[in-house]
Amino acid sequence: MQQTYTNPIYDYVRSDDQDAEARQHHPVIIVGAGPCGLAAGIDLALQGTPSVIIDDNNTVSVGSRAICFSKRTLEVMDRYGCADRMVKKGITWKRGKVFFQNELTYDFDLLPETDHKLPAFINLQQYYFEEYLVDRIADMEGVDLRWENKVIEIDNQETVTHITVATPEGNYTISCDYLLVADGANSNIRTQLGLESKGQVFQDRFLIADVVMKANFPTERWFWFDPPFHRNQSALLHRQADNVWRIDLQLGWDADPEEEKKEHNIRPRLEAMLGKDVEFDLEWASVYTFQCRKMDNFVHGRVIFMGDAAHQVSPFGARGANGGIQSVENLAWKLSRILRNEALPSLLQTYNTERQEGATENITNSTRATDFITPKNRISRIFRDETLRLAKKNPFARTLVNSGRLSTPCIYQSSPLNTSDDAHFQGKLTVGAAAHDAPAQINGHDDWLLKQLGNCFVAMINVDLIDQPSLQLELQALKEINDLRILLVSSQLEPTDLNETYNERCHWVFDTKGLIVERYDLQPGNAYLFRPDQIISARWKHFTAAAINKAKKKALGFTLESAA
Fold first, then answer.
1. Is there a contact between 78 and 72 (Cβ–Cβ < 8 Å)?
2. C or N: which end of the chain has fewer Cβ atoms within 10 Å?
3. Coil, strand, or helix at residue 559?
4. Cα radius of gyration rounded to whole Å, the chain
5. What is the β-pairing status of strands 244-250 and 170-181?
């Protein structure tokens, strides 16, 4: 098989902990240097919390694995300082086509709006994604990434967790305030603690093949139901970086996995799909049976589970890695503030509350997609096929077609950290939703709104037409609130009109195209409060500094104790 990528080999380096006379303690230890483990180390470091990442391997993932990274994931990566490199290498796409047999049923556009910094999706092999995160960590302080370190024993106590780590030079033991577990779907840590991830195994098999070829197919997601080249089954085609194309072919439950992943059996299937005159090389292939499952609780004392170790979905909808990154950004800011004594330990339970909601949403969508793609009986098959025929001319039927509902950020509508709206706002956004980007001038320079959100709490206020003396009083009170950045949004005023100076806490945002006002329904006097993970925590038609401070305290979980 041709290889377009050579895995980097990272050196084992003896740590200071191995030579210390006494057992060393760390605020956070992360097990697993996959997408979620690496992301967690970066996110924590950006918020001032050091961590140790332990991985028993010495390289990034082998095989492309996850390839579809959503706009929300890219927005998080932009906050980490990695997105530009990922987008440059990856294949940008937003359109998709759905085929039934030999005809196009319909196509779709995932981001019809203009004026967004980042695309709807990129396709980028997981090994590149991980490599870029490793490189980012190398440029940061506060993340100690240790290769060829394997956790062989864990002691989860009430106030501390001890782990024993095996290395090429022997074992050592360290402790931490919190242990984050991101060691994959078959988590060794989960097994050691006697915990389960429960759910459904789907009785079907799929061939996944990465093919190197120069082809004229557009950079779109193409999905076929019952195509002429693979009758009674489904097929999926995606382009990745380096002229690598991802092909998924449904095989059926009776397929022999070992036989089906042999190249001499794969090639005839691909030739039937691509045409015998198309030259290609097979780079990587696997046959898989997927599962939709999750743990009942992601938080077990001082041990917290993330990513596939906590929840697992089928690949349809690109909800695995993207959902995992949403879990990381949800957890990191909460853990940092608990460790800084700016929040109570009870805040940690809201990671479980909110991400259980996210995992359930992902599993529900993944399960429905799988049921539609692989009908379990004759009646289900008839319903599916008739739905596909209707969808060709009837838009209402397209909402019933399910080739994978593509990943979107979970909206934490019922979160106990939310402050209810004081009045009705227009538009799609709501409290509990992730922020939307828009172009703007920030302190006189062209930039993007999301660059000002994240890592701390942010108050965004439309200062147009506000009575100046009262505004100045409220702004002065806002500046007394810790861990709060202030964005003054205007499409009319100059900064001098408010006697404001730019500093680390207060920024002037000129709404150059009016899209901040439009996307947030941000009228004069309105205000928003964003959490450090860029989630909308509260909003007001008429704000006061006291109301914003109260909502911030609620977002930090200080009302949870009184409600218990």
1. no
2. C
3. coil
4. 25
5. unpaired
Q: What residue has token string 């697992």? A: 312
Residue 359 identity (one-letter amino acid) = A
Q: State the helix-helix crossing angle for 126-138 and 35-46, rounded to 10 degrees.
A: 30
- Beta strands across the sheet bearing 198-201: 198-201, 291-294, 311-312
Residues paired with residue 173 on neighbouring β-strands, in sequence order:
164
Using the structure block, give the residue that is written with the tokens 């002229």.
243
Quick one: tokens of 355?
A: 């991400």
With beta carbons less than 8 A apart as the criterion, state whether 220 and 97 touch. yes
Distance CA 229, CA 270 (A): 9
The correct answer on CATH 3.40.30.10 for the domain covering 439-563 is yes
- 422's tokens: 């004081």
- Separation of alpha carbons 47 and 515, rounded Å: 29
Superfamily grouping for domain 16-91+120-195+296-368 = FAD/NAD(P)-binding domain (3.50.50.60)
C-alpha 92, offset from chain centre: 17
In the chain, CATH 3.40.30.10 covers 439-563
Least confident window among 49-53, 110-114, 311-315, 451-455: 311-315
In this prediction, residues 448-461 reach a mean pLDDT of: 97
Q: Which among 338, 26, 332, 382 has a CA at the least distance from the CA of 172?
A: 26
- Residue 215 has a pLDDT of 84
- Phi, psi (rounded to 5 degrees) for 462: -85, 115
Cα distance between the two ends of the chain: 59
Q: Are 49 and 28 in contact (CB under 8 A)?
A: yes
Please state, in angstroms and rounded to a whole number, the distance separating the CA atoms of residues 301 and 295: 14
* Residue of 264, 312, 285, 269 lying closest to 212 (CA atoms): 285
Q: And the tokens for 371?
A: 């049921």
The two tokens of residue 415 are 């979160």
Residue type, position 345, single letter: P
CATH 3.50.50.60 residue ranges in the chain?
16-91+120-195+296-368
> What does the block give as tokens for 49?
């919390």
Separation of alpha carbons 224 and 487, rounded Å: 47
Please write the tens of the pLDDT for every residue from 229-261: 999 999 999 999 999 999 999 998 899 999 999
- Residue whose entry in the numeric block shows the structure tokens 């782990």: 163
